[in-house]
Amino acid sequence: MDDDLRERVERAAETSALYNALKHDSDAQVGAIMGPLMGENPEFREHGSEVPGVVAPVVERVNDLPAAERRERLAELDPDALAELEAEDEADERELPDLPNAGDYGEIRMRLAPNPNGPWHLGNARMPAVIGTYKDRYGGWMLCRFDDTDPETKRPDLDAYDAILDAIDYLGFEPDGVIRASDRLETYYDHARELVELGGAYTCSCAAEAFSALKNAGEPCPHRGKDPETVRSEFEAMVDGEYRAGEMVLRVKTDIEHRNPALRDWVAFRIVDTPHPRPEAADYRCWPMLDFQSGIDDHLTGITHIVRGIDLQDSAKRQRFVYDYFDWEYPEVIHWGKIQIDAYDVKMSTSTIKELIERGELDGWDDPRAPTLASVRRRGIRGRAVVDALVELGTSTSDVDLAMSSIYARNRELIDDEADRRFLVRGGVEKPVVGGPETAEPPIHPDHPDRGTRRVPVEGAVLVEPDDVPANGKRVWLKGFGCVRHTRDAFEFTGDDIDAVREEGVPVVHWVPADGSVPVTLRTMGGDVTGRAEPGIQGYEPGDVVQFERVGFARIDGVAGGDADTSEERRVVAYYAHP
């Protein structure tokens, strides 16, 4: 490759790296720009084996620039590319559609209806993110109603009630009201009694299989014609606990020949022998099914708009039968598709996560490998970032994918300015340093010189990551220290100025002192990673977020080890957030 071609490769690589870094608000990656670079410049292809070696140091230089300088440099190299980026920045983000018939209501009233069978995974966060956003848009009212009327199959977790309210707060919202369905059994009983009086319900003792056969054939249950007095008496016996599970149910009388068998005479109440875990509800045995309980509560709390999964379309249809008996107006309904996420090896399922925790395969709900709100929160990801990414998915009836990169990009915007920079070396290789200053002074934050520098002692030797050790005779720039040449298994200070990086492509690497560095356990989605950080890492409090340069953002969690009876060092534990 001649000098002219090398210069053109460097210029094209710099433009691509700048564009890539600014577009994704992160460091550019050689792999990400190689494809477009070669595709847009066919003359580079015959030198394909040499191009990566030219591109890599260019990318390193770009990644070492503050965001403002990246933008200025791209304006010099390719103003059209910068204009394209700025147009994207200014484009309106996809917003949630307006609520149907919102103008017909004096107040928009919506509800969250979590089942408290465990803390929330990321998919659960979609409901509060969207409903909370609608509440803010319309100046509306939001209820958190715990639908906890299934003491057996989806048995409530007593800790989940507070965990869910805490998660809503983390996302940046506050319910205007909080109720537990398990506190409202007498209300449901009263409405069931009224429904019986209206001729809209009957007690049924058919075996489940027998009723299913009749229902599918469009034939009425033999109990359908019971006189109201008998129905009232048998329902009161259900309430009094005189039947065992499976012996008697209360059914809503619908259309036995309805084209959808799922809507034919559905169960409103059943007997559950398993006591509810809440002491206040432990004595009840006659429990409403969700469609009955939810329908009654939506009316009594004045809900105007319901958001629910498209897989629950039949719920609205079942509830409309009850609303028709009571002559109530049904709320507006928005159905959406399922949310999917593929960034985790663990399934986004409350029961699955709970089982893995019980088996010891996850450390808890905030294990970084778990796709939960507790996990991303402990990693230092702001609730606002989660909300913005979820709201952008809209309310389409199609299934949608939640990209963690979308959450990361939004979180990066929120935390980058305040996150101090620090060095963390993984799998460090020790190299003596010959010559140069005794202390390096890299900036605390490259975009905020007013925040000063941090003092990192060299102390005669440094640790660098294995991939950053150059070939013998080659140079690297130890960030904040200067240029060194790798000779005789040592780093010899050469005294070069920064032009060695800008003009000669000397790679910039991070490092820590071999003596005085601090052991760190970095907890990641892929498991724990160990390394050593510069001494200043010990000055942070749990909850502080730093950026480990060339590694990523992390939340300081605490300090472990260092027992006085052992030689174990005090170890900083940090949770990795994202690049």
From TrEMBL:
Gene3D superfamilies: 2.40.240.100, HUPs (3.40.50.620), Ribosomal Protein L25, Chain P (2.40.240.10). GO terms for biological process: glutamyl-tRNA aminoacylation. One of its GO terms (molecular function) is ATP binding. The keyword Nucleotide-binding applies. It comes from the Archaea. Its EC number is 6.1.1.17. It catalyses: tRNA(Glu) + L-glutamate + ATP = L-glutamyl-tRNA(Glu) + AMP + diphosphate. SUPFAM superfamilies: Nucleotidylyl transferase, Ribosomal protein L25-like. Residues 444-453 have a biased composition (Basic and acidic residues). Residues 419-489 form the Glutamyl/glutaminyl-tRNA synthetase class Ib anti-codon binding domain. Pfam families: tRNA-synt_1c, tRNA-synt_1c_C, tRNA-synt_1c_C2. It is found in: Cytoplasm. Residues 508-557 form the tRNA synthetases class I (E and Q) anti-codon binding domain. Residues 432-453 are annotated as: Disordered. A motif ('HIGH' region) lies at residues 114-124. Keywords: Aminoacyl-tRNA synthetase, ATP-binding, Cytoplasm, Ligase, Nucleotide-binding, Protein biosynthesis. GO terms for cellular component: cytoplasm. Residues 107-415 form the Glutamyl/glutaminyl-tRNA synthetase class Ib catalytic domain. The keyword ATP-binding applies. Catalyzes the attachment of glutamate to tRNA(Glu) in a two-step reaction: glutamate is first activated by ATP to form Glu-AMP and then transferred to the acceptor end of tRNA(Glu). Belongs to the class-I aminoacyl-tRNA synthetase family. Glutamate--tRNA ligase type 2 subfamily. This is Glutamate--tRNA ligase.
